[in-house]
Fold each of these.
Amino acid sequence: LTGLLSVKEAQERILSVFQPVDTEMVPVARCAGRILAKDISAPGDLPPFTNSSMDGFAVRSADVQAASPSSPVVLQVVADIPAGSTSDIPLQPGQAARIMTGAALPPGADAVVPVENTDTQNSLGASPASQVGVLRGAKPGDSVRQRGMDVTQGQVLLEKQRKLQPQDLGILASTGMAQVPVFRRPRVALFSSGDELVQPGQPLGQGQIYDSNGFVLAALLEQAGAQPVPLGTAPDDPRQIEALLDRAIAEKADLILTSAGVSVGAFDYIRQVIEARGRLDFWKVDMRPGKPLAFGACADIPLIGLPGNPVSAFVGCLVFVLPAVRKLAGREAAPAFRQTAILGETIESDGRESYLRAVIEYRHGQRVATLTGHQGSGNMFSLVQAKALLIVPSGVKSLPSGSEAEIWFLSDE
Ligand code: AMP
Ligand code: MG
């Protein structure tokens, strides 16, 4: 392939090879953040039975219509119904049952009078007196939660592909489900490559640097719902690169991700090894940073080779890898939600689709973007300072101050 591939075309080619992984059952306690694999319908009504929403007295509302502080209605207390128990004694006219919040309404009752509207108080652990004076009337349904008022049996509660939120666990548990069908977390084997790389914690020799891409990529993958399988670092040595590919295959990865070694350097062996072990397309993508991109497969496992420069690897991961991970994970592949901002300065580009590091300020209620420092693809500090990536479309060489541009927030805080 010659020439430049557009970002969109590269994304589409990558996405086309991915299918959602299989599903698994996971205990409700551990399913937050997981992607639901099936629609969940209510197996029954919620609440499952009509119950009291107050601590008070279950009554026949017709009995207490005329009640007031100056002329209380006195009822006979014939039952005591704590939460978790029921009474099947039907209330007769003139009768009440003491009832606690969440307890089932007894037959015959159609309203609850809160204890605050009676002439009595609950004493901890004590049984009720045989009579109660009701100081305020109640209409049918007052302080009562009807069976099914929240959810009716068969209703879809949570839709397939939803990323489960903590509150979702509440409704799942309320239905009595102990396990939830979710997509398995895609396994992404990743390794960095380069003779110069040393792991943090080790002393640096002459000409060496610490591996940073491995950490960034693993964290991005994890945030996107994947399970990173970090394989460490391969030196620029075909045999050792091959050994890590073998480990990735043995780990049954759904995707293999590498950084560095895919460019035109004399020791960029990654492409050669992949070609020998599987198949490889190498693309020059019309973007900045991150023009070189390797895409292929080893033992039928898709492989994406990101460039080594830290900002290129980061942007490449956002633009190409995370959408693939989302698709693997059973979600819509759509990349992060993009928004717009007004440019606080004129921005020059070389005509490639550019992902520039920007800070965002709010002036007069408008989002204003300016660039963070030096945009070199090795400069990680300007990436750390950035709140968003600012996108200059392909073919555009200059965007004037005051014009609108697309931005991509880097975190939702
Ligand atoms: P390469 O793609 O191998 O030519 O690497 C491009 C640049 O990225 C070089 O300056 C490398 O030292 C740097 N680089 C490569 N891999 C990493 C990494 N894992 N962490 C930090 N920098 C890296
Ligand atoms: Mg290298």
Amino acid sequence: MTTINSSNNINIDGDQLWHSIHEMAQIGATEREGVCRLAFSAEDRAGRDRFIDDCQELGMEISRDTIGNIFARMEGEQPTLPAVMVGSHLDSQPTGGKYDGAYGVLSALEIARSLYAAGRRPTRSLEIVSFANEEGARFAPPMMGSGVFTGKLDLEKMLDTTDFEERTIRGELSQDTTGDFMTRPQRAIDSFFEIHIEQGPILEAAEIPIGIVTGAYAQRWYEVTLTGMESHAGPTPMSYRKDALVAGAELILAVEQTALAHGPDGRGTVGTLSLSPFSRNVIPGSVTLTIDTRHSDNPQLDAMDAMLRQAAAEIAQCRSVSIQVDELWHSPMRPFDPELIHSLEQAAQARGFNTLHLASGAGHDAVYMATSGVPTAMLFVPTKDGISHNESESITREDAIAGCQVLCDAVVARLFAEL
Ligand code: HGY
Ligand code: MN
Ligand code: MN
């Protein structure tokens, strides 16, 4: 059990952290003060290159892997020991906020900076990481970089994944002009820590600055194709129609009903929809849409899957359209590591912060790290009005610094732990 030995403590530079977060927010900045750094875009590459520059400035060893994850390593006194890894992601939603992901990567960087500034070389090595394409907004599924890194997602299949303009990740990466950094050697990882904004209302409502994350909700993503019959909006009587869009509208309401029918932890969202032939006076013959379902409990998510498929079958029959429901991705609920959770709890208490334990409705790279068997834990800090995946996303400077300091204390305890 790694205990927080406050004599080991390293104090972070809160001003430097807050400044680096807002420097990063300039990369891909939007007019409404958010960010747009879609995975593998020029803005995403610029954010990643800034991270690389800052790590190189410290003298860290940079490496990457074939899906574009970036690793920076501070070698410890005993370099053959498995490293402590800390990180998150720099890619964003199209109308993302300044803090989702970037706060976690730049907190990891601040821990490295603080160790170098204190002249402290840890026993274990420290690896900080920026995982590629966590959001899955442009290229689904999400958490792709960590999924490939942990072997849970197939690299070749991911490289051939296309965005809505039919561009592939392979093609995007081929334009990559990052330096010729070495591929990260196969090296064991002792533990993984991630700090993130909560992206929900719980911590702010409880007026508690530190959230200890117990695990992340299970998720299932679907791609749905509805096929009816396009025909003339005038001469076609209502009873003759095979309207794919009206069937889609019923399915969207069924998604909402399915989530509501599975308690407060049920979530159902239709975030994209396209139709054809997209003409004012033609009955839509074809609709494609995506569904994101989540639940804190694996069996409940399975029950939602069954209910959704049942609803689709009934709508298809009633409206004489075909509805193809394809599961795109499934991420089961994964609890995080009790020992690391305890070390985060200790670190927060040692600094006098109240904590609250909560599950994450959002997915994070920590989920795949935990799934791969690496002891993993996450910290949350409050999000203003619980709003995220929105340009108005906001956190306080005070909470950002408190969270990073608590993370630093737990990470340092692990880095210097007696063997
Ligand atoms: O969708 C999520 O949970 C995360 O933001 N990728
Ligand atoms: Mn995120
Ligand atoms: Mn996100």
